[in-house]
Amino acid sequence: MTESEVEEAVLSWFEGLGYAVLHGPDIAPWELVAERESYQEPHLPRQYAAAIAACPLSGGFFIFARANSAHRVGQGVADLKKRLGK
Question: What is the pTM assigned to this prediction?
Fold first, then answer.
């Protein structure tokens, strides 16, 4: 199985779960509907924050967990960039 076949299978699976599948060049950093500021961002911060906010958890602990989760992912990305010298 090639990388392309795996990618197509995963995209199809996510589409079946209700996710929108967009063509990479259409959401590139320089486009009007860019999903990230640069290709140096390994994740999509706005989409991650929206997904965490939409999580159906409730109660004080879960509110903290949501906020902490977004912070920790951001911190992990910053640490990784630092280790890679970027």
Answer: 0.45
